[in-house]
Amino acid sequence: MTAAATQSDEQRYDIVVVGGGPAGLTTALYGARLGHETAVFDRGGGRAAMMQDTHNVIGVPESVSGNEFLETARDQLRSYGGAYRREFVTAIDRHGEAFEVETTDGSVLADRVVLATGFSDARPEPPLPRTGRGLHYCLHCDAYMFVDEPVYVMGHGDSAAYVAMIMLNFTSDVDLLLRGAEPTWSDETDALLSEHPVDIVHEEVTGVRNGEGGWLEALKFENGAARDYRGGFAMYGAEYNNDLAVSLDAELNDDGTVVVDDHGRTSVDGLYAVGDLTPGHNQVPVAMGQGAKAGLTLHKSLRAFPKSLDELETDGRVTQADVPAIADALRRQAGAHSSAEGD
């Protein structure tokens, strides 16, 4: 958008959420249900969309895929009058007291912005098993599937070594695959690893054998050996999608996560961050909880009533004509939603 453009040229939302994963959609759901004009801008993809099955989410069967889970959440958001827009946000700038959110399809203004852009797992080089059918990234989500099964962990740093040792809580058959790299873990980690029954495999992976349903059966190695595995974990780090936060001068932690308080507020007034972009466990229920807390805090910062004594002194008493303080479109949607529930 050019500098000559004015606020009247653009649509304005109370809340814009960037990212359509569990954290972002939960934040937006709270925003819409609490009476604020809310939009989610989502480029698609993300870690939740990659889930073959949904684990650890009470009330959601494991047969539900990540895409099915997210589509249900999007339908819920729309049912309360929230907007879901499949657009990529390219930039966010201050525009007076609001934010100007530029996307691949134009720009909008927002009183509050929530970043829910997550991170991207670093993938090892092929050959690899299928993601979700032998190649996994979340220990706490998927370790249960490998109880008493042969498991690999790919990586050469401290995180890979620790995940390999943690997997001994679930199975006695754990291999740590260096894939030709030299270990980069610390001396302390090396001392720990040497005292745990983890088999370190140095050779590079040269092939994959899959079985029924596409599940991994074995990996082949450059020395001609083949090792049977039910699955395993790739531990090569992650890249946080924090470009928008950086552009707004939001404070970051050393690992690239965005610094937030317990309600998702960043160091920038009006800017929030939730989900995997922030410190903590990378779990769907955790992300949803962060979204709920941010949604409630956003509501408190945006709601019109009760007015303060200073506001009443300046603006006068609240009249019947001033209430309710909810946009007409959301009022109509609430009426339609209530009628539908009563049918």
From TrEMBL:
UniProt keyword Flavoprotein, yes or no: yes
Pfam families given in the database record: Pyr_redox_2 (PF07992)
Alphabetically ordered keywords of this record: Flavoprotein, Oxidoreductase
Domain of life per record: Archaea
Flavoprotein in keyword set: yes
Domain spans labelled FAD/NAD(P)-binding: 13-291
Molecular function terms from GO: oxidoreductase activity
Protein name: Thioredoxin reductase
Organism (species): Natrialba chahannaoensis JCM 10990
